[in-house]
Amino acid sequence: MRIQHFPEQGWHILADEQIAPHIHPSWYQVDHWQQLGLLEAQAQGRGQAYLLKGSRNLPPMVWRHYRRGGLVAKFTPDYYGWTGLKRTRPFREFILTQHLYQAGLPVARPLAAAVKRHPSGLVYQGEFLLERYLETCTLADYLLQGQGEPAILSKVRQVVTEVLAFGLHHVDLNARNILLRVDTQEVFIIDLDACYLRTPAQNWQAQVWQRLARSIDKLSLNPQQHHQVVTLLLDTSLS
Fold it and tell me: Pick from 219, 207, 134, 131: which is nearest to 175 by CA?
């Protein structure tokens, strides 16, 4: 990875070696991708994210703009307090995700983390680019379509167990932060903002499973499907 600085524009970009020679602050302008014909769609969800097509030098990507949640978002929707470059949310997420990816864990490959520091020096905005895995859907969408193959659900449980055993405390593991590629039975854990590594322990691991369970409850699946999901995905993990 390589850090590039664009002081006149206030940008600092930490990038994967493959795309570092090409990256520029203009990448964080919607018009840039529209002019290249590579802007495919804006992703649904609470945050602001765009789906980008691949090109000769670049893989398909997801571009995510960091946005706050909760009450604070009404006052400062996308600014964060500056406490140093390496402590910014994009840089921390990039370093963690790259560590997990290089360790062989099923996370999306990080491509670039960018920070634009406000002229005051007190706050910043953040951006994140990661490789986009085609022909995938979230676990939530999969279940809402009435699907629930035992092999897929068992694979999800295996992957979640694996990342927890590695020490990844995912602070918001829910059914929309788990990606599935059904035809190959691949599972990916995404959205590692504010997540961190810690010594594996049953108490915090159980909390992660319980958060995932609550997110599945909120999908309001029919009773038969819900029972199947709980049995194959959650029961042994919460016992």
Answer: 219
Using 50, 70 and 90 to split pLDDT, how confident is the model at 236? low
Residue in 172, 191, 217, 235 annotated catalytic:
172
In this prediction, residue 45 carries a pLDDT of 61
Active site residue 193: no
The pLDDT value given to residue 239: 46
- Whether this prediction's pTM lies above 0.85 is answered by yes
Give me the phi and psi of 178, to 5 degrees please. -125, 120
CB 210 within 8 A of CB 238: yes
Distance, first Cα to last Cα, the chain: 41
Long-range contacts of residues 233-238, Cβ cutoff 8 Å, at least 24 apart = 233/153, 233/154, 233/156, 233/157, 234/157, 234/209, 236/157, 237/157, 237/160, 237/161, 237/209, 238/206, 238/209, 238/210, 238/213
Q: Which of 208, 177, 187, 189 is nearest to 49 (CA)?
A: 177
